[in-house]
Predict the structure.
Amino acid sequence: MAVSHRLFRPATATVKNTISSFFIRSISSSSSSSSSGPSLDPKIDLEEAAAQLEKSSSSSSSSSPSPYKGRNFHWVFLGCPGVGKGTYASRLSSLLGVPHIATGDLVRDELSSSGLLSSQLKELVNHGKLVPDEFIISLLSKRLEAGKEKGEAGYILDGFPRTVTQAEILEGVTNIDLVINLKLREEALLAKCLGRRICSECGANYNVACIDIKGDNDDSPRMYMPPLLPPPSCESKLISRADDTEEVVKERLRIYNKMTQPVEEFYRKRGKLLEFELPGGIPESWPRLLRALNLENDKQSAIA
Ligand code: ADP
C-alpha cells in the first residue's frame, strides 16, 4: 500500500511560520471538523492538523466535582519510557478533576482498529519510532474536541509534545501552565518497561518487576520499587505491550534522548519546567510529588 508522502513529510520552517494564519482561517471553517473517530486520512497534513488542534484546545466549563474545579489546569508530563508518566498523570487527573490524555493510548486505540494506514503506523510504533506529527496532532485534536463536547476543561497531557515541532504548535494554540519532567535512574527504566503488564479486560496497569538497585553512596542511594501485582481477577488476562521488548525499549530511549530531550529545554527556557526525580515506588514518590506541586496540604491528595 502506498503511503502518501504528505503524511510523512517532515515539518519545514515554512510550515511552522504559516501556522498562525491557518489558525485564523480554521476559526471560520469550523464545519470541516467531524466528531467521528480519528482519521487515518493519507491526505492529512500538519497545517490541517494544527488548525484542528487550535479549535479543539480552547476551554469550556467543567462539571467535575474536584475541589480544584474551575482551575482548568493545562499541564504536561515529560519523561523517558518507563518512568511512570501514566501512573502519576492519572493520579493527578483524579485529584485535580481534569482529564488525563495519553497520546500513546490514543495511538494504540487507533491502531487496534483497521484503518488505511494502520499497518504502516503499527510498524513504526512496534519498532519504537515516533508517528508523524500531523497524525498525532489530528488524534489529539479529535480527543480534545470530544472532551469539549462533554464539558471537559483543562488536561494533563502525557506523551505530547514529544518533538519541538509539536511543542511549538501547542504553544501557538494554548497556554501550558506547567511541565513536569519525571526522572528515574536509567537502570530502572528498562526493567520497568519489561515488567509492565496490562489487563486485557479492564485495562489496568501492573508491573511484575521488583527493582532493587544497590546504593553506592549518598548521591546514588539504594532504590527499591516493589512489584505492583494484579488482583486474582486480572491475573489470567495479563498482556504486554508489543513495544515493551528489550530491543524496542532501547530504541524508544534513544529516540527520547534525540527527539524529546530538546522539548525539555524548550520549556526550561520558558520557565515552565519542574524537574522531579522519582525517589522510588509510588508510596515514596507520590507524597513528594504533591509537595513539589504545592498540593500536599490538601485533604483530597491523601485519597487520590
Ligand atoms: P512511552 O512508554 O515510550 O512513553 P507511549 O505509550 O507514550 O510510550 O507511546 C507509544 C508510542 O506511540 C510511541 O513510541 C510512538 O510511536 C507513539 N506516540 C505517542 N505519542 C506520540 C507523539 N506525541 N508523537 C509521536 N509519536 C507518539
